[in-house]
Design a protein that fits this description.
- The chain is mainly α.
- The protein has a domain at 112-319.
- 77% of the residues lie in helices and 3% in strands.
- The chain contains 7 helices and 4 strands, in the order H-H-H-H-H-H-H-E-E-E-E.
- The protein has helices at 6-168, 173-220, 225-267, 272-429, 449-465, 492-515, 527-538; strands at residues 554-557, 561-564, 569-573, 579-583.
- The strands form 2 sheets. It has a two-stranded antiparallel sheet with strand order 1-2. Strands 3-4 form a two-stranded antiparallel sheet.
- It is rod-shaped.
- The relative contact order is 0.08.
- Residues 452-477, 570-592 have a biased composition (Basic residues).
- Residues 428-496, 540-601 are annotated as: Disordered.
- Keywords: Coiled coil.
- Residues 20-75, 194-370 form a coiled coil.
Length: 601
């Protein structure tokens, strides 16, 4: 291979880094645009998947709403049927309540009439009782007056009889014997009359018992009160007739007694003992009659008391009936109120079901519109996706073409640089020429996992094969700025040592920078590539410098922070081609490169 002339090599060396930087920046921009497009494509894919899930969820919600709508329609039909049944029941209850109310009102009116009739009857009975009591008192007064007169006459008769009896006691003994039989006959007649009076009393007792039975029948049956009232009036009239007959009988008895007294007064002068016996008999009869009169009075009082008690019981029964009717009316009203409340609840439930049905219909329409809009959005997204896929494919093809062009330019520039620098170094260091370099491999456009694995394997191999920096020389680094020294002749051994140390330091310094380069896996860097990377590294400046005080000593940095100083030396190349050592601005890990902030990788 022919070596290029020196001016052309210098111009190529000056123009090639600028062109290379421009190409690298353009490749970085295109890679950034490609990465953005890929991120956009992934985001669009995710959005499309989210929209598909939302559409599926909307379809599921629509199906659930349709099923709920069907169930609500069925419930509405059942509620309508139930409401119709309840309305029929309510109408039946209203009719039954109206009939029962009319019946209760009729019964109440009948009970009020019966109560008024009973009150009138009670007033009439009270008037009759008062009249009977006044008549009884008049009879008692008459009987007391007659008894007083009879007692006065009896005393006079006794006195006269005693006077006459002392005179004609013995004369009348025979007459007394004759009259004894006559008195016996009169006693038998009087006993018969007393038996008749007892029979009459029994008949009165039977009439009273019949009256009590009739009153009991009146208490048991209020609806037959008029007939019972008539019967009671008939019984009272019978009782009054019986009492009148008793009064007539007593009057007849008094008349017969007066006649008998007159007869005895006419015959008592001769028959004192007979009169005394007759007086005793009459006294006993009078006592019996008085007892019967008192008994009749007591029975009349008892009858009046029973009548009052019967009236009170009837009144209580009527009040209880009225209270029961009021309670039934209240219960009927409560039933009607509950029926009205249930009807209102059914109407409210029907209105709520109608509102829910309308809301479900509206929601169904909204969901249908949403599904249609989602379908349209999905169609637009599919079209956008296809368009972006075509654009991404076109951009990928353009980027791959640019990458291939960049690799071709890079390989040409590297070849030219390598040739020029190698000729210069060969002229300086080696008297014999070097063999030509091997051809560079063509870069592959597509990046994959295999390429990254191969790149990592190459970096590991380069790291294992590269020696440590600073082992070539143990000379102390100079802290004063180096002066421009003229090149001096060196022996062949020294030149070889310098070239070996330069190669090691270049491999050490460019290892971190080569790690961040993009592209297909490469073999270990060539000397021309090492020179280019070295020129790149030369443009970087340390962030801070300090004067070393010796290995393993403490030094002060910044605001008083003390740290362990490790004198790590890096080998750099000056313009004259000589090697020198300068202290590292900060301790760094082996296998990495120091890069100032903001510098491109």
């Amino acid at each position: 291979m022919a070596t290029p002339p020196a001016p052309e090599a210098a111009t190529a060396a000056q123009a090639s880094p600028q062109r290379l930087r421009e190409l690298l920046d353009e490749v970085a921009r295109k890679e950034e645009a490609l990465r953005q497009l890929r991120a956009l494509f992934e985001r669009l894919c995710r959005d499309y998947e989210v929209e598909q899930r939302n559409a599926a969820r909307a379809k599921l919600e629509l199906e659930t709403l349709l099923t709920r709508h069907e169930t609500q329609q069925q419930e509405l039909v059942t509620m309508k049927a139930r409401s119709a049944v309840q309305e029929a029941r309510i109408k039946e209850e209203d009719g039954a309540w109206a009939r029962r109310t009319r019946q209760l009102r009729q019964e109440l009116a009948a009970a009020v009439e019966e109560r008024d009739a009973l009150a009138n009857e009670r007033e009439a009975q009270w008037q009759q009782t008062r009249m009977l009591r006044s008549q009884l008192e008049e009879q008692q007064r008459q009987s007391a007056a007659s008894e007083d007169a009879w007692r006065c006459r009896l005393d006079e008769a006794r006195r006269e009889a005693a006077v006459e009896a002392q005179a004609g006691m013995r004369e009348r003994e025979e007459l007394l014997r004759l009259r004894e039989a006559e008195l016996q006959r009169g006693g038998s007649q009087l006993e018969g009359r007393l038996a008749d009076a007892a029979a009459e009393a029994r008949r009165q007792q039977e009439a009273k018992e019949a009256l009590m039975l009739r009153i009991d029948d009146l208490q048991r049956s209020l609806r037959r009160q008029e007939a019972m009232t008539q019967r009671a009036q008939d019984a009272l009239s019978v009782e009054q007739k019986a009492k009148a007959q008793l009064g007539e009988y007593m009057a007849l008895e008094r008349q017969t007694h007066r006649q008998r007294l007159e007869q005895t007064e006419n015959s008592y002068k001769a028959q004192v003992q007979e009169m005394q016996r007759l007086c005793d008999q009459h006294a006993r009869e009078r006592e019996r009659l008085e007892s019967e009169v008192t008994r009749c009075q007591r029975e009349a009082q008892q009858e009046a008391q029973r009548t009052r008690e019967l009236w009170l019981q009837q009144k209580q029964q009527l009040e209880a009936t009225i209270e029961s009717l009021r309670g039934e009316l209240t219960r009927a009203r409560m039933r009607l109120d509950t029926a009205d409340e249930s009807q209102q609840r059914v109407e409210a439930l029907l209105a709520r079901s109608r509102r829910e049905l309308e809301a479900s219909q509206q929601q169904e329409a909204v969901l249908q519109e949403t599904v249609a809009s989602l379908h349209k959005a999905a169609a637009r997204r599919d079209a956008t996706h296809l368009r972006l896929e075509g654009e991404v494919a076109r951009l990928l093809a353009a980027v791959a073409e640019r990458e291939r062009e960049t690799e071709r330019w890079r390989s040409a520039v590297d070849r030219r640089e390598w040739q020029s620098r190698l000729e210069v170094e060969r002229e300086r260091a080696l008297p014999e020429p070097l063999p030509p370099p091997p051809p560079l491999p063509l870069p592959l456009p597509a990046a994959s996992a295999a390429r990254r694995a191969a790149r990592r394997a190459a970096r590991r191999a380069a790291r294992r094969g590269s020696p440590r920096i600073g082992r070539c020389s143990r000379r102390r680094a100079s802290t004063t700025p180096r002066r421009e020294a003229a090149p001096r002749p060196a022996s062949r051994r020294r030149r070889r040592r310098r070239l070996k140390c330069f190669a090691r330091s270049c491999r050490r310094c460019c290892r971190g920078a080569w790690r961040h380069t993009r592209g297909p896996p490469h073999p270990p860097p060539t000397p021309l590539q090492l020179l280019l990377l070295l020129r790149r590294r030369r443009r970087r400046r340390p962030t801070a410098t300090c004067k070393p005080r010796g290995a393993g000593r403490w030094r002060r940095v910044g605001g008083g922070v003390r740290q362990r100083a490790t004198q790590t030396l890096r080998r750099t190349r000056c313009k004259t081609g000589r090697l020198r050592r300068r202290p590292s601005p900060a301790p760094h890990r082996r296998g990495t490169s120091v890069r100032p902030a903001g510098a491109p990788r």
